[in-house]
Amino acid sequence: MIYISEQIKEALQILAESKRRPPYELCAVKAVLNAYRNDEHHSLKAELDLILEQKFSNVKPMKDVFREKVDVELATDEQYQEFLAVVSSFTGSIKMLACLADFDPSTLSMLKRSGSIKKAYFDKLQPHFAAVLAEQGRHSQPKYNNGQKIVSRVVSASVAEAKAKGASV
């Protein structure tokens, strides 16, 4: 069996408690860990093997553990285009959709640039598309590079017009 270092350390603590002695020193722990890693002899290994088998009997040997690759189902191109239309609809749409669907905004931004989206993600996001698109009307004001300057010019021009009308009456 192959055990991780945390399991071996825990077994050393159990062994020290069973022998009614203080915990093993750091140098002893390192020596035991090296013995397990390099498959070398150590005087505590026999006792630790018994404890490890009792404590971690359900651990599979590394030969039996393997990772199965699962094919991820992607959304169709039409679904991806619908997603793009929503996240590109106005400034702040990604943040709003992320808030509604419990996603991180950076994840949605990455999905926008990636060119594809997982079907599961699309299914989780799709119910919130209507709410985001409903907000689009509120945010569809024209965008200017110097927004503050333009607003101040319009306000000052309207104030000047109001003064001129007041003076002419």
Write a short abstract of this structure:
The protein is mainly α. The protein contains 9 helices and no strands.
What radius of gyration results from the CA coordinates?
Answer: 33 Å
- By secondary-structure content and strand pairing, the structural class works out as mainly alpha
Distance between termini? 98 Å
**Number of H/I helices:** 9
Query: How much is the average pLDDT?
Result: 79
Helicity range of the residues? 55-70%
- Globular, elongated, flat, extended or rod-shaped: what is the shape? elongated
Question: Can you offer a commentary on this structure?
Answer:
With 169 residues, this protein is an all-alpha fold. Among the domains are: 5-55, no CATH class; 77-136, no CATH class. It is 62% helix and 0% strand. It is built from 9 helices and no strands. The protein has helices spanning 5-18, 26-38, 45-55, 77-87, 93-101, 105-114, 119-125, 129-136, 147-168. α1 (5-18) crosses α3 (45-55). The longest helix has 22 residues, at 147-168. The chain is elongated. The model has no long low-confidence stretch (mean pLDDT 79).
Features:
169 residues; mainly alpha; single chain
Helices, strands, pairings?
Blueprint: H1 5-18, H2 26-38, H3 45-55, H4 77-87, H5 93-101, H6 105-114, H7 119-125, H8 129-136, H9 147-168
